[in-house]
Amino acid sequence: MKYIITGFHSIEEILRSKENLEGAILFYSKVGPRVKKIIALAENMGLRAICEDDKSLNKRVSSLPPLLQNHKGAVLVIEHSKSLLNKTNVESLIASLKEKQKSCLLILDGISDCHNMGAIIRSADQFAVDAVIVPKHDSAKGDESTILKTSAGAASWMKIVEVSNLSSCISLLKEIGFWVFASDMAGESLYNIKFPDKVAIVMGSEGGGISRLVKKNCDIIASIPTFGKIDSLNVSVATGIFLYEVKKQFSLS
User: Is 206 buried (19+), middle (13-18) or exposed (0-12) by CB count in 10 A?
Assistant: First the structure.
């Protein structure tokens, strides 16, 4: 699998989070302070750093989506057999959470847009979410370069748990004390919600929302009060609002 990574944050966090990127090459053109820092990180890992002109870098990123083509003078090329996302399994996650007093998890039911996925993971990192749980199928995983870019490198650190069945996973979480909240416009106002010490937030897909069976297995349906002329928020924005409220309540209790 070939990864072409752009963006200073994304490159830096990949280099910091991975112990072994054998064969990866850093290509750079403009040697500013940030690029010097990235070069040092690469060389400390034993990676090659090769100076090229901007025309050559532009050619290297020409196959990427427009958002990723702005390399700013640094491109990390990785030939890697494994995903660069920080994946773990549900058994390891549950074992790590059993004795934890407070915990917040994020469950994504069918988020298909890689930009939204990356933005959500960035918010999850900022609000100290323990893991992001996604279905193995019907989820944005294909374009990892976009996810890494839009997460500003947070996807290199945040635990990503792929499960075959979200409803079964929710049942396992309930067994170790988690309360599961579904985000839906028809739910109880977030103003009135008191989050417990172990909480999992379920966010639905951009178009269809949370699937019927998953919603049925949630404990409480919660909504974000809005006051504008349109009646919905982008899923990544809505996720950030929920996570902020959970973190605020955790800090006050």
Answer: middle
Q: 45: exposed, middle or buried (C-beta count within 10 Å: 0-12, 13-18, 19+)?
A: middle
Question: Do 237 and 190 touch, CB atoms closer than 8 A?
Answer: no
Residues 228, 231, 236, 242: is their CA dihedral positive or negative?
positive
Provide the pLDDT for residue 94: 93
Interatomic CA distance for residues 190 and 8, integer angstroms: 36
Q: What is the length of the chain?
A: 253
pLDDT above 70 (res 138): no
> Residue 14 and residue 45: Cα distance in Å, rounded?
11
Q: What is the mean pLDDT of the chain?
A: 91
Is 76's pLDDT higher than 70? Answer: yes
Band of the pLDDT at 65, cuts 50, 70, 90?
confident
CA 176 to chain centre: 24
| CA 179/CA 173 separation, integer angstroms | 8
Q: Is the pLDDT of residue 137 over 90?
A: no
To which residue do tokens 């028809």 refer? 186
Beta strands in the chain (DSSP E): 2-5, 25-28, 48-51, 74-79, 87-88, 103-109, 131-135, 160-163, 179-189, 198-204, 220-223
Whole-model pTM?
Answer: 0.87
Residue type, 144: E
Query: Which of 35, 71, 37 is CA-nearest to residue 56?
Result: 71
H runs (alpha helix) in 28-103? 33-44, 54-60, 90-97
- What is the biggest distance separating any 2 CA atoms in the chain, rounded to whole angstroms? 57
